[in-house]
Amino acid sequence: MDANILFEQIKKKQSVLCVGLDTDLEKVPQHLLLEEDPIFAFNKAIIDATHHVTVAYKPNTAFYEAYGIKGWQSLKKTINYLNDNHPDIFTIADAKRGDIGNTSSRYAKAFFEDLGFDSVTTAPYMGKDSIEPFLAFEGKFTIMLALTSNPGAFDFQTQKVGAAELYKKVLETSKSWENSERLMYVVGATKAEYLAEIRQIIPKAFLLVPGVGAQGGSMDDVFKYGATETAGLLINSSRGIIYASAEKDFAEAAAAEAEKLQRQMAVHLKQLN
């Protein structure tokens, strides 16, 4: 996907909403368990109810891999449904992959060519030869972990390496990699106070921001410190939207939550214009 399509979606929908499809059969409404493919039935209903205010969908692959081949088939059906019916909506395989070069190439091929995602999340611990194979795919984006929203982020990411914190070293170093213009970065909303310094290092790159809502992150702070002139943000919400109800009205409840977030986003986006 061309980044301009994503910019157009943001402008058209006045939204930077990314909906996380972290589908857990223990949490979906019970009546869906009677479906031939409950995971896909749930995802399709969520997509149908929220696509009008959503610019990206992000299935976390662990929730599909946990169900073996059937889960993988559900993931394939989900991405096919999105690509066939909403080709302008950005898709993210939240897989957090990263390995030596030839292995990363196979991961990239799986998510970009076989499944047809627009992007995949990666973990940069092994350095540039674990990330550059993903960046080699034209028209695809690699979303690299930078500063995450979990408590364990402080174990390594904020520790100083010389004069700078490790996450800053990661950001700075990644700019020198081949095809780095295809990089986006994960920065947790619960670390919003770090965003101003992050923007000093990567002023234009898109940031995928989880942690607004259920994890306590502030949308106001994310926009204040992290937004660019053209937004440059994808703010993810998973549980707060997809599990807004466990009853038969789950899709309507998801739509209401998504629309609530979109209205908040629209206020901030208007201030950028």
TrEMBL record:
The chain positions of domain Orotidine 5'-phosphate decarboxylase read 16-254
Q: Which of UniProt's keywords are assigned here? A: Decarboxylase, Lyase, Pyrimidine biosynthesis
The record's listing under Gene3D superfamilies reads: Aldolase class I
Q: In its keyword annotation, does this UniProt entry include Lyase? A: yes
Name the catalytic site residues.
K96
What does the record list as GO biological process? Answer: 'de novo' pyrimidine nucleobase biosynthetic process; 'de novo' UMP biosynthetic process
- Pathway(s) where this gene product acts: Pyrimidine metabolism; UMP biosynthesis via de novo pathway; UMP from orotate: step 2/2
The reaction(s) catalysed by this protein are: orotidine 5'-phosphate + H(+) = UMP + CO2
Q: What EC numbers are recorded for this enzyme?
A: 4.1.1.23
Q: Name one GO molecular function term.
A: orotidine-5'-phosphate decarboxylase activity
| InterPro entries to which the protein is assigned, alphabetical | Aldolase_TIM, OMPdecase_type-2, OMPdeCOase_dom, RibuloseP-bd_barrel
Q: Which family does it belong to?
A: Belongs to the OMP decarboxylase family. Type 2 subfamily.
Q: What is this protein called?
A: Orotidine 5'-phosphate decarboxylase
Q: Which organism is it from?
A: Leeuwenhoekiella polynyae
